[in-house]
């Protein structure tokens, strides 16, 4: 019998694991994996062993394999995928899904073993400021190798599909990242920071240069706004750039660090006057989807990716990459509160079908079945 007629077995690797919900890929594996299990698929997730003190074999029907890694800042993720790929290729899985274009070269292992593969390559990693020199060259090369060694390339936006066609002459299937629309939560969760609904702008994201928090802060502080700017997020390591930002002294700035309580984070989104999105490189962004899902008025950096997500201005306003433009959009937002309210009321309409996790799962399942048949 063909694999598609038996119980389909899918291995997923390249993120931290399940149920380790920390970043975008981990969230995707959770949402996708749990839905695939309900559809009768055998899902195996490769977990980064060092992150799990308890290591049950099955969690919510998902098989968890705990593979090791060489623990260093630049090698952890790559070596973890390398060991996971070897394990999967020696097993009876039908299809392997890898996330992160940095894992592009490991497709050669699955090619040798003739295991069908798909890779979700995500954003323009080689352009991110944190990967200077060799790191940037590696990610560009790895992304190119992904287009050679994997059977199916998956991108999460039409713009990223265009980039891969242009740079690597390789078409890809577009499957967006999903969103979970949320109900607004009580303002009482804001008391922890002495905040009041609609009296602050919000930034959510890692404090890294390509998210442009420095630019937004500079422009905001140049404005005449009496509101606060709340910055949620940090970096999990010592970093001079992030420290310099957090040391800016101004009563209008509030750095919360990481917010791990989902209700507190939901309240910060739900009750902000405007949500600033400065992410520069990448396709469908999870923080932007959360902002739409919580009904935020979105002010986004003008990039092709953000234009695509907000349907060319239907669900948000744009600012350019300079502090003066940020200053102007703050003034515009505060002078047109009724338009900001209109953006909040229609934000969830921006979560069109392609951002629905059930729809996303169906599309992945289609890819897996097709690969298994081959």
TrEMBL record:
<dbReference type="Pfam" id="PF09314">
    <property type="entry name" value="DUF1972"/>
</dbReference>
<feature type="domain" description="DUF1972">
    <location>
        <begin position="119"/>
        <end position="179"/>
    </location>
</feature>
<keyword id="KW-0808">Transferase</keyword>
<protein>
    <submittedName>
        <fullName>Glycosyltransferase involved in cell wall bisynthesis</fullName>
    </submittedName>
</protein>
<dbReference type="GO" id="GO:0016757">
    <property type="term" value="F:glycosyltransferase activity"/>
</dbReference>
<dbReference type="InterPro" id="IPR015393">
    <property type="entry name" value="DUF1972"/>
</dbReference>
<dbReference type="InterPro" id="IPR001296">
    <property type="entry name" value="Glyco_trans_1"/>
</dbReference>
<dbReference type="Pfam" id="PF00534">
    <property type="entry name" value="Glycos_transf_1"/>
</dbReference>
<feature type="domain" description="Glycosyl transferase family 1">
    <location>
        <begin position="197"/>
        <end position="348"/>
    </location>
</feature>
């Amino acid at each position: 019998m063909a694999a598609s007629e038996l119980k389909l077995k899918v291995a997923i690797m390249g993120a931290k694991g399940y149920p380790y919900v920390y970043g975008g890929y981990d969230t995707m594996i959770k949402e996708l994996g749990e839905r695939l299990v309900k559809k009768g698929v055998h899902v195996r997730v490769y977990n980064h062993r060092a992150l799990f003190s308890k290591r049950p074999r099955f969690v919510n029907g998902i098989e968890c394999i705990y593979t090791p890694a060489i623990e260093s800042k630049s090698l952890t993720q790559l070596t973890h995928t390398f060991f996971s790929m070897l394990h999967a290729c020696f097993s009876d899985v039908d299809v392997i899904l890898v996330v992160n274009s940095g894992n592009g070269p490991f497709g050669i292992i699955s090619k040798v073993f003739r295991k069908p593969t798909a890779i979700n390559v995500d954003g323009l990693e080689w352009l991110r400021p944190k990967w200077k020199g060799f790191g940037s060259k590696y990610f560009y090369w790895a992304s190119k190798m992904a287009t050679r060694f994997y059977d199916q390339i998956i991108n999460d936006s039409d713009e990223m599909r265009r980039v891969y066609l242009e740079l690597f002459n390789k078409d890809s299937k577009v499957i967006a990242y999903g969103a979970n629309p949320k109900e607004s939560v009580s303002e009482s969760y804001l008391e922890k920071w002495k905040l009041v609904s609609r009296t602050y702008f919000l930034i959510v994201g890692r404090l890294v240069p390509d998210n442009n928090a420095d630019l937004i802060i500079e422009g905001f502080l140049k404005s005449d706004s009496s509101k606060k700017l709340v910055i949620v997020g940090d970096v999990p390591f010592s970093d001079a750039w992030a420290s310099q930002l957090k040391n800016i002294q101004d009563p209008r700035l509030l750095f919360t660090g990481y917010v791990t309580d989902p209700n507190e984070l939901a309240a910060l989104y739900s009750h902000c006057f405007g949500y600033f999105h400065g992410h520069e490189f990448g396709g469908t962004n999870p923080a932007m989807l959360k902002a739409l899902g919580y009904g935020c008025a979105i002010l986004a950096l003008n990039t092709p990716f953000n234009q695509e997500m907000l349907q060319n201005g239907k669900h948000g306003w744009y600012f350019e990459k300079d502090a003066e433009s940020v200053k102007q959009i703050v003034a515009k937002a505060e002078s047109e509160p009724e338009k900001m309210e209109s953006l909040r009321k229609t934000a969830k309409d921006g979560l069109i079908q392609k951002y629905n996790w059930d729809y996303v799962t169906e599309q992945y399942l289609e890819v897996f079945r097709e690969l298994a048949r081959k």
